[in-house]
Amino acid sequence: MAAAVVGEGDARQLKLLGMWASPFAHRVRVALQLKGLEYEHVEEDMGNKSELLLASNPVHKKVPVLLHGDCPIPESLVILEYLDDAFPGAGRQAILPADPYRRAVARFWAAYVDGKLHGMMLNALLGATEEERAAGTADTLAALDKLEGAFAECSGGKKEFFAGDEPGYLDIVLGGFVGWLRAWDKVGGVKLLDAGRIPRLTAWAARFAELDAAKEVTPDPDRIAEYARVLLARRAAAAAASE
């Protein structure tokens, strides 16, 4: 990574390398909007990655990467914390809770979203067999049930968001997946956001999607579904080529 030093709070040179369908890039864009930070968005073609992306994230070679001046910050969760540290006065509130315990709880569930929910959704969509995809769907529904309980716990059962009256770290982390969650009936034939099963999380997703910061970047469900069909076609072609 570059060794250049950027002045604290200097938002004049923020650039985000992202991709419209990436829930991880989406969450960073929401955070930047909530913080009121101006930035340049660079759309990456993940099938033909730019030299800038490869140089900025040589380890994982993926989006998102935030460029603050000449300093690249990869990985969405790292970027969210960096935005709080680099721009502490921006936005109506900090992204992460000030209370150490609430901060730890938010980080725990954020790790669950990325470490469990994301992988389960991938298995549900791209599993090699029908059995693997069915198991992935069942696991995804179970994970959302756990997050329903987490919302009741974190919000006190009466607040608008996980963080309270305003969206915070866990809202932004899970909020990156709202576009995919809302499109899943078109993608996988199963309604993931079901008010009958997970009423709190379904209502939360609707509130999050209506945030001005989220409206501007949340992908359209039909566009997500079309992109998912492309991924499925690639999976089928790869499977056929390996036979």
UniProtKB/TrEMBL annotation:
The keyword Cytoplasm is assigned to this record: yes
Class in the EC hierarchy, top level: transferase
Organism annotation: Paspalum notatum var. saurae
EC numbers, comma separated: 2.5.1.18
Sequence similarity: Belongs to the GST superfamily. Tau family.
Keywords, alphabetical: Cytoplasm, Transferase
GO biological process, one term: glutathione metabolic process
Lineage start: Eukaryota, Viridiplantae, Streptophyta, Embryophyta, Tracheophyta
Any one GO molecular function term: glutathione transferase activity
Subcellular location: Cytoplasm, Cytosol
Keyword Membrane: no
Domain GST N-terminal: from-to ranges: 12-91
Top-level taxon: Eukaryota
Catalysed reaction equations from the record: RX + glutathione = an S-substituted glutathione + a halide anion + H(+)
Chief localization: cytoplasm
This protein's name: Glutathione S-transferase
InterPro entries (UniProt xref): Glutathione-S-Trfase_C-like, Glutathione-S-Trfase_C_sf, Glutathione_S-Trfase, Glutathione_S-Trfase_N, GST_C_Tau, Omega/Tau-like, Thioredoxin-like_sf
Physiological role: Is involved in the conjugation of reduced glutathione to a wide number of exogenous and endogenous hydrophobic electrophiles.
